[in-house]
Design goal:
Layout lengths: L2 H18 L31 E7 L2 H9 L3 E9 L2 E8 L1 H9 L3 E7 L1 H22 L5 E10 L4 E9 L9 E7 L2 E6 L1 E5 L2 E11 L5 E6 L4 E5 L1 E2 L24 H14 L4 E5 L10 E6 L7 E8 L8 E5 L9 E4 L3 E5 L12 H11 L4 E5 L12 E4 L18 E5 L9 E6 L7 H15 L5 H9 L1 E5 L4 H9 L64 H12 L3 E11 L1 E4 L16 H22 L8 E3 H4 L7 H9 L2 E9 L1 E3 L4 E3 L7 H27 L6 E4 L3 E3 L3 E7 L3 E6 L10 E2 L12 E3 L3 E9 L18 E7 L1
Parallel strand pairs: 5-13, 17-19, 23-24, 23-25, 25-28, 26-27, 32-38
Antiparallel strand pairs: 1-3, 1-4, 2-3, 5-6, 6-10, 7-8, 7-11, 9-10, 11-12, 14-22, 15-16, 16-20, 17-21, 18-19, 22-24, 26-28, 29-30, 31-33, 33-36, 34-35, 34-37, 37-38
Helix pairs in contact: 5-7, 7-14, 10-13, 11-14
Bound molecules: zinc ion.
Zinc ion binds next to loops.
């Protein structure tokens, strides 16, 4: 162990002791410390604490890094206010007390556990309505079927109503005939202040049909005659025919994939579902019970079988056998483990927790393992007690406990790898409920506008679009049914001392810290390799988690993927690589000045699309490389895609702060806002994701090489000169200063500093600059071939007198 490591190790001990008030053997059960020599005072086991999101005032960057190092569960939101940093964190009351000792002020409680519970209730009510509606075929009624002609165009307008209208999964499709050609289009759902009004469409037509038929995906149909609408002379908005709004409640993984399956059935020519090869652990746990209420006497019993595979059927009883001088004895059948405690000559039980544990681990090892409470020596005498083991999972039985096959929705007319690929993936972090809705909404818009919106057709015909609605389905189920604030997956890597049931909400691996570039294992900041209960636990090794490997598999298997969006919440951020720095705050390599310019240029397109929905502005202060605007996130997936696979990779944080006019301040929306707010976020960020898909399309169509100019160019100068390059578009410039041919191995123009523009070249002696530029689509200036022998690169000579 190096000196530096040793110091860090010591520091961690102090920190963890401060968090829990327990001795260090609790956290380092593997250390050989002569524990037997230490008398441990017996204490009541504290009740489980509830968590809230609070706003912390952090005096400086160093204190913020300290927070990360402590394993405090930060949300993605941070904001600077008069030089003081505000970050949001998910914490318990005892963690709050510990933070105060580090000079960190708790400013506001933003969201309490009660509010999260209300959100779960809201979702369950919506799910019930959905289920009851889906059970029966609906009735469709056509309210209106009209045509009208304005100055330039004739339009078809339809209003129809379904008895299942409030469910967003209900889709109505109209069909009619124009000049003998059958046409069809999906109707828009119109909901006003939560009340379903009707479905409608308005489309330009080339000939007036005599009738229309409206069909629901639930089976209902209706036919209506098309009549002229008098006085309909308003010009049609050209985008009015574009349908959207296909989500009406927060969706758990099962629902997301059910929807995806239906889409694949409805649009077999445009969609397929990809089963990814690495199954998750599954929404499942071993069953547990903790017998005894004090630290020295408690025995934690854990089943060998998963809860749903027999663990939940087990019970354990410690009893006084009723005889004197009895030995400690364990008998077990398949359901019940009976521990007859040892007695003394007066018939009083004398078995200690440690003795009972040793006996259980020897005589009931087929069924259970047993441990003391958090590394305690277990010297206390246990009392007679009975307990039933449980996995503590609350999801209804129809939520599968089996390992989960994570799926991607692949959309495109040509899904053979010949078209450029785009990837959108959501919910690496389980509690970010809005994020899957962004992908589902995007999928539906692409499919349901395909037949009648030229812009959508172009995208679907020319791109290969991959959408992963939930990367972390096990954690998501846990967040929906058991613990709202679950961030990580469900795999527990903690040892026995940190595996008692009261720790169950802090197990798991952060899937956005488990990747192999700039990882905590490489020494980067912002994840923990040692604290299994940290909010940013990186796992036992890079890519240890199937969920992370699935993403790697996607990128490996579909090398046509060129653009990716990693969708998180909340805070309203728009970010790209580098995403991590080392302890000296040295980041992973910055993109070239040209790549950075491209990131900014296309961000502008996507952010404008987001703004179109309801005016949300993603602030410039929340746009840029991750460490410049948020924090270091060692081993995140977007860095993997950018550095290892050369994919332009962004991170969205949906859920921008809302302006409170009364209080004149921005307010955080949280991970699980009311659905009314979550819905708006899904709509606006679906705009943004489709914005990225448009960027990919434009990039694929871009065959125009960039052109550049050195300023100043050829000439005689009396002293040192700063040379800069003007470019026609975002482009990377490779150059030499020694007269040689420039290649991809040559130096390139870098950024002059964090959030600054391109550097200038300082020329202080007579120099020839040879260079070429390459744009984001790979077009090279003047079609120069850096690998060949041609001399068609740019060249200027600056003579310094
Ligand atoms: Zn996240």
């Amino acid at each position: 162990m190096t000196k530096q490591k040793k110091q860090k190790w010591k520091r961690n001990l102090v920190v963890m002791t401060a968090i829990t008030g327990l001795g260090f053997s609790t956290f380092y059960p593997g250390l050989s410390i002569p524990v037997a020599a230490v008398e441990q005072p017996d204490q009541p086991i504290p009740k489980e604490e509830s968590v809230s999101i609070v706003q912390l005032e952090v005096p400086n960057q160093k204190a913020k890094d300290k927070l990360l190092e402590l394993g405090i569960d930060l949300t993605h939101r941070a904001q600077e206010h008069n030089g003081i940093l505000e970050v949001d964190a998910v914490v318990t009351p005892s963690e709050i007390a510990m933070l105060k000792t580090f000079g960190i002020k708790v400013k506001d409680t933003l969201i309490t556990e009660n509010q999260w519970n209300a959100r779960t209730t809201e979702r369950q009510a919506a799910t019930k309505i959905e289920a009851s509606l889906a059970a029966s075929e609906d009735t469709v009624k056509i309210l209106r079927a009209n045509y009208y002609t304005n100055q330039s165009e004739t339009f078809l307008y339809i209003e129809a109503k379904t008895s299942a209208g409030t469910a967003a999964s209900t889709a109505l499709t109209a069909t009619w005939t124009e000049n003998g050609v059958e046409k069809s289009a999906t109707l828009n759902r119109f909901v006003d202040y939560g009340e379903y009004m009707y479905h409608w469409l308005e489309l330009p037509i080339s000939a007036i049909p005599s009738s229309v038929k409206v069909t629901s995906n639930l089976g209902g149909t209706a036919t209506g005659t098309v009549t002229q609408w008098l006085g309909a002379d308003k010009p049609g908005n050209p985008k009015k025919h574009y349908v959207k709004d296909f989500v009406d409640h927060y969706m758990a993984p099962g629902e997301l994939y059910e929807r995806a399956k239906e889409l694949a059935k409805e649009f077999p020519d445009l969609v397929e579902i990809i089963d990814m090869p690495n199954k998750t652990n599954g929404y499942r746990r071993l069953a547990q019970a903790q017998l005894g209420n004090t630290t020295n006497t408690a025995v934690v019993v854990t089943s060998k079988a998963w809860g749903h595979e027999g663990g939940n059927d087990l019970s354990v009883e410690f009893r006084n056998p009723g005889t004197i001088n009895a030995p400690l004895k364990v008998t077990a059948d398949r359901k019940k483990i009976l521990v007859d405690l040892a007695t003394d000559s007066s018939g009083k039980t004398v078995s200690t927790a440690q003795q009972v544990i040793t006996a259980l681990n020897s005589d009931a090892k087929q069924l259970v393992s047993a441990a003391t409470y958090r590394g305690n020596t277990g010297a206390g005498i246990v009392s007679p007690v009975t307990a039933k083991l449980t996995d503590g999972l609350n999801a209804p039985a129809n939520v599968s406990r089996d390992p989960f096959t994570v799926k991607a929705i692949r959309i495109g007319k040509h899904r053979d790898g010949s078209k450029p690929g785009v990837l959108g993936y959501a919910q690496e972090h389980a509690r970010e409920w809005v994020t899957p809705l962004v992908t589902i909404e995007t999928a539906e818009r692409l499919l349901r506008n395909y037949a009648h919106d030229g812009e959508t057709k172009k995208l679907v015909d020319n791109l290969d679009i991959f959408l992963v609605p939930t990367v972390n389905p096990d954690g998501a189920n846990y967040s929906f049914y058991d613990y709202n604030m679950q961030r990580k997956n469900m795999t527990n890597y903690c040892g026995p001392a940190e595996s008692d049931p009261a720790y169950r909400t802090s197990w798991g691996v952060d899937l956005n810290r488990n990747h192999s570039v700039g990882s905590a294992f490489d020494g980067y900041v912002g994840a923990s390799t040692t604290q299994c209960r940290s909010g940013t636990y990186a796992g036992p090794a890079e890519n240890s988690e199937p969920e992370a490997r699935n993403l790697v598999w996607l990128a490996d298997n579909f090398s046509n993927i060129k653009f990716a969006m990693n969708i998180h919440s909340y805070g309203g951020y728009f970010m790209w690589s580098p995403g991590a720095y080392d302890p000296n705050r040295k980041t992973l390599p910055r993109p070239t000045a040209g790549e950075e310019a491209f990131y900014w240029a296309v961000s502008d397109i996507m952010l404008n699309d987001i703004q179109d929905h309801r005016g949300t502005v993603i602030l410039p202060s929340r746009t840029g490389p991750v460490p410049d605007v948020l924090y270091s996130a060692a081993g995140n997936s977007a860095d993997y895609l950018w550095y290892a696979k050369g994919i332009y990779a962004w991170d969205f944080e949906v859920g921008a702060d809302l302006w409170n006019k009364e209080k004149q301040r921005w307010e955080a929306v949280g991970f699980q806002p009311t659905f009314a707010e979550g819905h708006e976020e899904a709509m606006e960020f679906a705009n943004g994701l489709i914005g990225m898909i448009k960027v990919a399309y434009n990039n694929a169509k871009d065959h125009q090489p960039p052109s550049t100019k050195a300023v100043p160019g050829n000439g005689k100068f009396s002293g040192p000169v700063d040379v800069q390059f003007e470019t026609s578009e975002a482009a990377t410039i490779y150059y030499t200063l020694d007269g040689s041919r420039p290649t991809f191995e040559s130096a390139h123009i870098k950024l002059s500093g964090t959030r600054e523009g391109a550097e200038t070249l300082k020329v202080d002696k007579t120099t020839t600059i040879n260079w070429f530029a390459v744009d984001a689509a790979g077009n090279i200036e003047k079609n120069y071939n850096p690998l060949g022998n041609g001399k068609n690169y740019n060249s200027v000579t600056l003579t310094i007198k």
